[in-house]
Design goal:
- The structure is a homodimer.
- Chain A is α+β, with helices and mostly antiparallel strands.
- Chain A has a three-stranded antiparallel β-sheet.
- In chain A, a hairpin with a 2-residue loop joins strand 2 and strand 3.
- The radius of gyration of chain A is 20 Å and the shape is elongated.
- The structure holds a DNA duplex.
Chain lengths: 114, 114
DNA sequence: CAGGAATATTCTCATACAGGTATATACGCA
DNA sequence: TGCGTATATACCTGTATGAGAATATTCCTG
């Protein structure tokens, strides 16, 4: 499970993160909310843990999981170069890229559908 | 290949999108830049096309591909609830979530490592 | 129309991985 | 100490999918 995107490719893992985004939760809570067998939840949590997406704290027999931001931030960063495709605001970077695109011939025809 | 995240899980597909983010490119250009066999590039492009990440235009024998923003925008939207974990700016949504978190007991201990 | 360039498709194979079941480990409590 | 709860791990199996090689398709050019 190399990349952050590979970890997020699994729908149940995204569901776990979404649940944890609003508050910390124990494995039991997650299991109940997701209506998923407990071993399955534990295995997904392991992948999320090893990917750095979550951290856990021991509380008696419970393990309480919470979101860790770092890997999601990396995903956010990866998206940065694409934001110009949907942000109306034309900043310096976009102007630069549009110049490059324009200079490779056949004028600026952006975002039209096939 | 259900979700946008599953499409992005493949490193070569992310590389293709990154190349297309700066400018439209033909399959041949992508093949050359990525040092990947052409059938491989075509197959990845097919997945990207069916996922709505790219669109193509025919130009003689060439197919020129370009980025299509929609699915990336969905990924961006999915990230939204997590941004409060790394953005210093406390907006209305965050205040709301912090109130929810606080009301479930054990006071606001956010983002500490294990 | 033949030949060649550019791209897509098909096939086979190997492998990663998610689901399911059973079991192990850790901890609190009576 | 022994049982019950909470979570993790191990094992097995089926399947989706990426790589590689061969071939098909499309379209330009001479």
């Amino acid at each position: 499970m190399e990349s952050a995107f590979a970890v997020l490719a699994e729908p149940h893992r995204r569901a776990i993160l979404s649940l944890l985004s609003s508050s910390e939760r124990s494995v039991g809570e997650l299991t109940h909310r997701l209506r998923l067998p407990q071993p399955s939840v534990s295995k997904h949590l392991k992948v999320l843990r090893e990917g750095g997406f979550v951290a856990s704290r021991v509380e008696a027999q419970r393990r309480v999981y919470r979101v860790n931001a770092k890997p999601l931030q990396e995903v956010d960063a990866w998206l940065a170069p694409f934001r110009r495709f949907w942000s109306r605001h034309v900043d310096a970077l976009e102007q630069h890229l549009e110049r490059m695109e324009g200079s490779s011939g056949k004028g600026k025809r952006r975002h039209e559908q096939p």
